[in-house]
Known about the structure:
Oligomer: single chain
Radius of gyration: 18 Å
Number of strands: 7
Strand order of the largest sheet: 1-2-3-4-5-7-6
Strand content: 25-35%
CATH superfamily: Gcn5-related N-acetyltransferase (GNAT)
Amino acid sequence: xxxxxxxxxxxxxxxxxxxxxxxxxxxxxxxxxxxxxxxxxxxxxxxxxxxxxxxxxxxxxxxxxxxxxxxxxxxxxxxxxxxxxxxxxxxxxxxxxxxxxxxxxxxxxxxxxxxxxxxxxxxxxxxxxxxxxxxxxxxxxxxxxxxxxxxxxxxxxxxxxxxxxxxxxxxxxxxxxxxxxxxxxxxxxxxxxxxxxxx
Length: 199
């Protein structure tokens, strides 16, 4: 699988408000799955969203990031939200502006987001829920190695009507591997050096 290695993700900045006009160009492709993305999406809408993302990072209720392409342009967004603090899982979502679609940007950004999430939160699982007709989103989930768990009946709303959705999940196997490695080291009486055995 070939990924776009030049993609980065970062927390939203105030200057991104004007760049989020990308939502207007992407309305036809994105709005069926994300109703907020419509042809009249404004800078004021974007500014309000940026405030929400900052608050979310601050209180741990959501972690949304801007996707930046190799040329430094705003390419879309990705984030972890609907966080369940008790059972430690959350939803993972993403979108890429229409003019940059099909370049491997979404999978590259999602992989970075997954890595960031498991390194910086206590979550044990993230889920990707894609409407059955949202084939492009399903392809992204599959490219990053998410496990296809099930098809859920009437799980999401699409154009005001309930739609079945495919549920994908990602868990951090590195933590399991780290525990196994630590157990092997303990059994062999070899002491790990600082930094060993961390997922």
